[in-house]
Amino acid sequence: MNAMEIEYSGGVAAAGGTTETDIDLSSRGRDNHQQAAMYLVWEDLSVVLPNFGNGHSRRLLDGLTGFAEPGRIMAIMGPSGSGKSTLLDSLAGRLSGNVVMTGNVLLNGKRKRLDYGVAAYVTQEDLLLGTLSVRETITYSALLRLPTTLSKQEMDEIVEATIMEMGLRDCADGLVGNWHIRSISGGEKKRLSIALEILTRPRLLFLDEPTSGLDSASAFFVIQTLRNIALDGRTVISSIHQPSSEVFALFDDLFLLSGGLTAYFGPATMAVEFFDKAGFPCPSRRNPSDHFLRCINSGFDQVTNNLMGSRRIHDSDPLMNIPIAKINATLVDKYRTSEFATRAKARIREISSIEGLIVESRRGSQAKWWKQLSVLTCRSFKNMSRDVGYYWVRIGIYVTLSICVGSIFFDVGTNFTAILARGACGGFVAGFMTFMSIGGFPSFLEEMKVFYKERLNGYYGVGVYVMSNLLSSFPFLALMSIATATIVYYMVKFRPEFPSYLYFCLDLLSCIATVESAMMIVASLVPNFLMGVTIGAGYLAIMMMTSGFFRSLPDLPKPLWRYPISYINYGAWGLQGAYKNDMIGLEFDSFISDGTKLKGEFILKSMLGVPLSHSKWWDLAAIVCLLVSFRLIFFAVLKLKERASPYVRTFYTKRTLKHLNKRPSFRKAASFPSKRQQPLHPLSAQEGLNSPLHY
Ligand SMILES: Nc1ncnc2c1ncn2[C@@H]1O[C@H](COP(=O)(O)OP(=O)(O)OP(=O)(O)O)[C@@H](O)[C@H]1O
Ligand SMILES: [Mg+2]
Q1: DSSP 107-127
Q2: Which of 71, 260, 313, 380 fits as disulfide partner to 472, beta carbons 3.0 to 4.6 Å?
Q3: Where is the segment annotated Disordered (predicted)?
């Protein structure tokens, strides 16, 4: 057992059940709980959306200061568009690449990347594999992350307890759903996403609107569970939309955002008092959270004015007579000078002086890599076999096309015209049939999205993912190639020898596997469906053109097309191998009726431009080398995106700030001059920074 620990206690009891699972895998004493506590502090945090044209750059978050402590659950509230997700993304190090972040985010007093498993994050969007059931999804997640030393029974207990905790028992065997599978409801998906993250009892947990789409009772139980997790000494930060008064009462702290500014930060129970003192008391029968949002949602001021003007609304509420923008500005101003702001700063100083806090270089998973590889391969295989669009449709099309090709070139023979026919048939199979691998692109993209989410939460490493993808797809590629090759080979009657048939299968399999790998590289570079398909199709068209079918290899223009393109073209090697496999040793009728027979070797050299200096097995080996290289490139692209992104972000942040600080409009845009006069320090310029990644 390593230094990392997982505790799991009282889950079912929390959800109202009677059984209690309590697995304490820690080999260390209680003292370490304090050490493993996560104090998150953010100081003067700003996020800017730069505009390099004439327009104004937009401050999405403006000088936010706050902290989150272990044992407490914090609610981030604010109207839609106020910056809740942006704040969570900034704290969790997952901001998108087009914005610039400045300020400090400190975990236990240190700057640290919070992605890749240090913190767990339930995003607003649910990214799940649609072909798995709820129970399967949770089980795979548990197998991928819980320690390998846990027995199957313990693992099952944890999974069942989590299903109970999130109220998913009734839909546990229902499939998550995708375009062709009827799905569980949106609220159930949301609870499933939460279940996946609370499974390992993370020390720091971010949630973006975990109760959206839930009825008030479900929302209450979900937040109650999160509160229980917090009470175990974990730090929980959650944005929340319209909580009921019962749900609101479960939160310890409240961070109220209004247009990217802090309207209130402090204990949730004191917020009513703050609003009261600020001159906007909460009416006795109103849900406090509704009142807070009403006071700060200025987006509908114009509409309210119009309705009041046309006398369509008559409201005795005094708030209706004051423009919300004004209330908003007053609250932001009052908070800045309030005792809450002063106390927050004092507490931040206290937190920074706590000694003995450690920041473990913790991964999100405690499972061994080989366990992850086998589980991920198994899950991916199940997904591929259940998703009709992933391989089955393609296999169907390949079989249909093979029958077409087989009947068009049926029993091709060895007369003079068969030379051209054999060449065309080989060219079609090696060149065009591989083209259809582009059909898997949408499914690759779906899988990649789940990969990015799981990777950021530290489920497994890039190498494990790349390997598992190759292994799980292999049976389908083999089935596709063998079915195609068998139908074509025996209908066209290429050659009777079994080794030639075997070579034909291997040649096709390696070409298709290489195209698949190339498509994975495209999917990792261009995570957009239309752009990806277009780029993939362009790449395959170039490969087809230079494969030696449309223009023989020796005739290709030497710069670029012959060297290097035809050498890094799987199609060129595939076609040469297929031609050699078919023609060496065969004799064809001459052009004239009783002329001498034409040898296959002669045709290869003089008519098809295929060099005979190396055997067909070298051609096959070249394709396998390309396949391995493409997989390595795929791995390198994913890895580089992870490693290089902090440096790219640092560079971008520095450049953007330099550019923006020259603009008077950016400097003057401040509504609170005293704050804005302070220079912005690019957070990412500092070592070990909380650098966000963008995919
Ligand atoms: N990467 C980005 N590029 C451009 N604009 C952005 C970006 N991120 C956030 N914004 C803008 O910042 C504002 C705040 O967005 P954010 O998603 O944080 O709001 P929110 O409070 O989470 O809203 P909701 O409750 O609707 O989820 C929005 O107006 C949004 O358009
Ligand atoms: Mg949001």
Answers
A1: ETTB----TTTTSEEE-SS--
A2: 380
A3: 668-695
80 Cα to the center of ligand 1, angstroms? 8
Cα-based distances in Å from 456 to 47, 76, 365, 692: 21, 22, 11, 10
Phi-psi region of 554 (alpha: psi -120 to 50; beta: other; left: phi over 0): alpha
Structure confidence at residue 674 (pLDDT):
35
**Distance in Å, CA 650 to ligand 1 centroid:** 22
305-334 per-position pLDDT tens digit: 565 555 555 555 656 566 777 888 889 999
Q: Measured at the alpha carbon of residue 538, what is the angle toward residues 533 and 543, in degrees to the nearest 5?
A: 125
Find the largest Cα–Cα distance for the chain: 110
**Residue 529 has which token pair?**
């469906």
Measured distance between the N- and C-terminal CA atoms of the chain, rounded to whole angstroms: 34
Q: How far apart are CA 171 and CA 148, in angstroms?
A: 27
Instruction: Check pocket membership of 80 for ligand 1, CB cut-off 6 A.
Output: yes
Q: Which atom of ligand 1 is nearest to the CA of 78?
A: 21
Encoded amino acid at 166, one letter: M
d(CA 563, CA 34): 63
Which residues have CB under 8 Å from 571's CB, separation 6+? 430, 431, 434, 511, 543, 544, 546, 547, 548
Cβ proximity of 600 and 588 under 8 Å: yes
Is 682 close to ligand 1, i.e. is its CB under 6 Å away?
no
For residue 506, which of 552, 553, 570, 568 has the smallest C-alpha distance? 570
Short-list 619, 392, 398, CA closest to 511: 619
Please state the atom number of ligand 1 nearest to the C-alpha of residue 83: 18
- Cβ(189) – ligand 1 distance below 6 Å: no
DSSP assigned state of 614: S
Cα–Cα distance, 459 to 365 (Å, whole number): 5
- DSSP tag of 28: S
| Dihedral sign from CA coordinates of 498, 500, 502, 505 | negative
In the reported structure, the alpha carbon of residue 124 is separated from the centroid of ligand 2 by a whole-number distance in angstroms of 6
Instruction: Please name the residue whose Cα sits nearest to atom 25 of ligand 1.
Output: 80
Ligand 1 atom nearest residue 95's Cα? 1
- Give the pLDDT of residue 255: 96
Phi-psi region of 525 (alpha: psi -120 to 50; beta: other; left: phi over 0): alpha
Encoded amino acid at 279, one letter: G
Residue 41 is inside which H or E element, if any? strand 40-49
- Name the residue type at position 96: S
pLDDT tens-digit readout, 259-297: 899 999 999 999 999 999 888 888 888 899 998 988 887
* DSSP-derived secondary structure letter, 392: I
Q: How far is the CA of 91 from the centre of ligand 2 (A)?
A: 14
In DSSP terms, which residues pair with 236 in a beta bridge?
73, 205
Please determine, for residue 534, whether its predicted confidence score (pLDDT) is greater than 80: yes
**d(C-alpha 224, C-alpha 12), whole Å:** 12
